[in-house]
Automatic annotation (TrEMBL):
<dbReference type="InterPro" id="IPR001272">
    <property type="entry name" value="PEP_carboxykinase_ATP"/>
</dbReference>
<feature type="compositionally biased region" description="Basic and acidic residues">
    <location>
        <begin position="18"/>
        <end position="28"/>
    </location>
</feature>
<keyword id="KW-0547">Nucleotide-binding</keyword>
<dbReference type="InterPro" id="IPR015994">
    <property type="entry name" value="PEPCK_ATP_CS"/>
</dbReference>
<feature type="region of interest" description="Disordered">
    <location>
        <begin position="1"/>
        <end position="28"/>
    </location>
</feature>
<keyword id="KW-0067">ATP-binding</keyword>
<dbReference type="Pfam" id="PF01293">
    <property type="entry name" value="PEPCK_ATP"/>
</dbReference>
<dbReference type="GO" id="GO:0005829">
    <property type="term" value="C:cytosol"/>
</dbReference>
<keyword id="KW-0210">Decarboxylase</keyword>
<keyword id="KW-0456">Lyase</keyword>
<comment type="similarity">
    <text>Belongs to the phosphoenolpyruvate carboxykinase (ATP) family.</text>
</comment>
<dbReference type="GO" id="GO:0006094">
    <property type="term" value="P:gluconeogenesis"/>
</dbReference>
<dbReference type="InterPro" id="IPR013035">
    <property type="entry name" value="PEP_carboxykinase_C"/>
</dbReference>
<dbReference type="GO" id="GO:0005524">
    <property type="term" value="F:ATP binding"/>
</dbReference>
<protein>
    <recommendedName>
        <fullName>phosphoenolpyruvate carboxykinase (ATP)</fullName>
        <ecNumber>4.1.1.49</ecNumber>
    </recommendedName>
</protein>
<keyword id="KW-0312">Gluconeogenesis</keyword>
<comment type="pathway">
    <text>Carbohydrate biosynthesis; gluconeogenesis.</text>
</comment>
Amino acid sequence: MEAKDGQASWLGTNGYGSRREEDGVCHDDSATPVRANTVDELHSLQRKPQVVEDRHRLQLQSISASLASMTCGIGPKLIKGDPARKKEMVGKAVTHHQHHITVPTITHAIKYEKGSFITSSGALATLSGAKTGRSPRDKRVVKDETTDDLWWGKGSPNIEMDEHTFLINRERAVDYLNSLDKVFVNDQFLNWDPNNRIKVRIISARAYHSLFMHNMCIRPTYEELENFGEPDFTIYNAGQFPCNRYTHYMTSSTSIDINLKRREMVILGTQYAGEMKKGLFSVMHYLMPKKQILSLHSGCNMGRGGDVALFFGLSGTGKTTLSTDRNRILIGDDEHCWSDNGISNIEGGCYAKCIDLSQEKEPDIWDAIKFGTVLENVVFDEHSREVDYTEKSVTENTRAAYPIEYIANAKIPCVGPHPKNVILLACDAFGVLPPVSKLSHAQTMYHFISGYTALVAGTEDGIKEPQATFSACFGAAFIMLHPTRYAAMLADKMKKHGATGWLVNTGWIGGSYGVGERISLAYTRKIIDAIHSGELLDTSYKKTDVFGLDIPRKVEGVPSELLDPINTWEDKDSYKLTLLKLADLFKRNFKVFADYKNGGVSDLADEIAAAGPNFLF
Ligand SMILES: Nc1ncnc2c1ncn2[C@@H]1O[C@H](COP(=O)(O)OP(=O)(O)O)[C@@H](O)[C@H]1O
Ligand SMILES: C=C(OP(=O)(O)O)C(=O)O
Ligand SMILES: [Ca+2]
Ligand SMILES: [Mn+2]
């Protein structure tokens, strides 16, 4: 078994690989003699010798134990693959990012994984297979005596499974991984807050998965890696291999299984890399609240003066795009923790949507797509290897995963003080929510618990009705406890630190999808600028009908008539009907929470429910 260096190791599980004799090297006595007779010998001279120290042996033992079968209990014999130049780095003042170690991983992907190529900007383009997005209906959590406080039942993302079934899937994944010549092992961290850091191990079959997690998790220094010890949580990613549909609970060939007691996650039947990232995020949504730390599905950035803003929102609403801001320092684009010490990013990388990406509108993300970055499911020119970001032929969910320091003004370490602004993003395809509203405390809670956005249906077959989506805490797919638990913590923290809530519609203006158009990114950026600068704190406001939102009369750089949606709709009756329709959807959705008794925000419940739309049909 061969293990490559560092946090991204590849491990062969067969003891030793095959060795093919190369032809002898041709001798030419006129030149200085080379101390080698074969190309293999020459190649061994190219590399620094590997010193196998006790620490490395311990690391291999630990990984072998991770891969041990439950039934026979013995792990495979492991050897490290290409140890690169690790020794040389030990003791130097290295930072957390050591990208050279990914080179063998990238090489492996290009050689052995179909559809993997280096694009013209140097990024690794690859395919995630049949699944190009997450599979929430196949995400299961083991229900046992330790998980009584989890959110189960209607609306919950946690589909239950039993321990025995988990072990069947675990064994299936481990057997699959052990049947391979090589597997990849990443030992990394989550959470930049040093007191609440989690050690994760990801064992996977694809170089793509290893490189993805290398980019997305926090990369240890060599010293940290040497002293890594045992992980707090382990992922077995056997995504190329299906689960067995005859296994109890299985409803498809895909299953993503979390066992909190064993601190393990098993992936079968999907190669979409986002499952690993978001699976670990779910685990953080369980572990952090136990320590009174709030986990957040939000982007986060900071002004030069230290003012921090959070950007909540469902997929595609603009967390990544708007937190990546030339004029501000990026703390993270998607997953954060809010503790008594302030904000910390959970991750070490960003995962940006690439569809219709343009250098002009999103220069920082554009520049981050270079060597080391993983590009998923994009289409490129066969000869020039130029990516066509408008192409949706593989999927609309094309993605780039890059280490956070690929963004020029990233804050390393990725931590910051308590937020001043909490921005709730909604991409409203109905086109009735104002581009920006200032929220009262109760309104902030109402909209946080509602977690509204609207998706537009398939863009191919002409105009379709926008679909309202409500996802509690703007991340119902990832939360583990009841939404009101997170909402209560957010309410407390915002009050304590005097943060202001805002609702920003990054969706449609001038009519619903099909009639109006999406508000330009340039205008949304102006609105966000005005929130950051404080301009919108003391300006003149008016209240809207139905939703009762406070909207500013003026925002620097944005035409004032855009600020009240009714102005931009030609058909005013249609506007009113659509507004009432959306309000009704909000009411129906919120009823479940208003009726919920044991949430921890009971004293606030009435006030929060009253902060929603008010109207009579
Ligand atoms: N006004 C706008 N505000 C924010 N994003 C916009 C806007 N108009 C278009 N977009 C596009 O919408 C997408 C937002 O996606 P992203 O930032 O990745 O969302 P998230 O991180 O919340 O999933 C990007 O592709 C962005 O270019
Ligand atoms: C990767 C994801 O996050 P987002 O779309 O919010 O960036 C996801 O939800 O699968
Ligand atoms: Ca997300
Ligand atoms: Mn994002």
